[in-house]
Amino acid sequence: MKKTELIFIPAPGLSHVVSTVETAKLLLQRDERLSVTVLIIRRPNDDLTDNYIQKYSPNSNTNSRLQFINLPYQENSPVSTNVLFDFINNQNDHIREIVSNLMKSPSQSSDYKLGGLVLDMFCTKFIEIANEFNLPSYVFFTSGACTLGLFFHLLELKYEQNQDLTMYKNSDVELSIPCFSIPVPVKVLPAVFVEEGPMSNIFLNYFKRIPETKGIMVNTFHELESFAIEALSNQNKYPKVYPIGPILSSSSDDEQTSHQGYDEIKKWLDEQPESSVVFLCFGSMGSFEESQVKEIASALEKSGQRFLWSLRKPGGKGMMHLPTEYEDFREVLPEEFLERTEGIGKVIGWTPQVAVLSHPAIGGFVSHCGWNSTLESVWFGVPVATFPLYAEQQLNAFELVKELGMAEEIRIDYRKDMRGEKPSEIVGSGEIEAAIRRLMAEEGGSRVRNKVKEMKERSRTALMDGGSSYNAQSVFIEDVIKNVS
């Protein structure tokens, strides 16, 4: 039986690494002919990613075909303001050496071939390395099909229609984008594309290389984004799209990455009525300044809802500074808030999100609308109230609220300045409270809740034998093997 190895290269950060590794595991489970090597690009002090990777050991058939290589972290390497991409690009020589060594490996024979590089959307620079070794390259797109369609549309506006995208900054214009069934307000576009400065071109140059690849795996499923997937499938100028999701960390895996305090959290949740708790969590990068924390606290208290709130401390200015943990939540919460809400609410630090969302006590989710979190909420049938922060999260919020009718809106266009160069807008407690009430209402929220529960069943069917994503995975595997035969 011929064997084929794929090299996966995720971008730095837990959300990209988790979805990449879980995709690799899924493909390995599907076909014994495959093996996978994942190259890990570390950000400084990224303990969450380190803990996630460390739990893997070659103690099963799947894990024995899955290996990790931690690329060296260059602490003293010169970096520019584009620090995330510097961390990626500085690994070019290391990745070339690893690919070269794998190509020369004694295992490379007529029965064992290197099948190509599977690159994160921010790692398309390494297409050059695949080309050097005459290897196919693929993209694993960690966001959804609507976002992929938006990026392709922005490429066309800039490079085919010669539009200056900064014309859309602070604009009320709505765009007709092929992957959306309704017009999209430019206020929900990722800010990087409409701001002055070099970053728009940097991002678009990464996406501009996607057409050089053999195909794009997208972490979505046909039933969730059918309009977008069909629009992408009906065009000829971009590579083949494989909707293989939803890919998410399993509850048992996620628990293993948590701190010891999860037992206390689970005990508290076990004591709450079914679907009675609203869970607030804003991802591995999510945090707020004190003024916004107080507005959220006020909204929770006035709503009277049971709540579990993952509250984390801003880690400093810039995208490379991850949030940290509070030593005492009282330093940022309103005076005596913890005492007044004792019994109906619990404030915590970092927590395993999947394990919490899977608990039957959780009835609603105030989320930053990262794509992983979006898929997790669908998988467990938990409706969302949207509080996007950065990147493509505003677009995800728009898709959930307006395109799909599957979420309640706190805001769809709120954004936090992740560089810390200007103060963020404050969302008032009244606005947050009203959305939480709609989210948790048995009557008013039933339309959204019913849609999410219906999509929960469809998300699971998609991954079963004969389901839409199961079939897309099969097609991808066969295409990979065909491309190296």
Automatic annotation (TrEMBL):
The keyword Transferase applies. Its EC number is 2.4.1.-. PROSITE patterns: UDPGT. It holds the Pfam family UDPGT. The keyword Membrane does not apply. It comes from the Eukaryota. Gene3D superfamilies: Glycogen Phosphorylase B. Belongs to the UDP-glycosyltransferase family. It is an enzyme of class 2 (transferase). Keywords: Glycosyltransferase, Transferase. This is Glycosyltransferase.
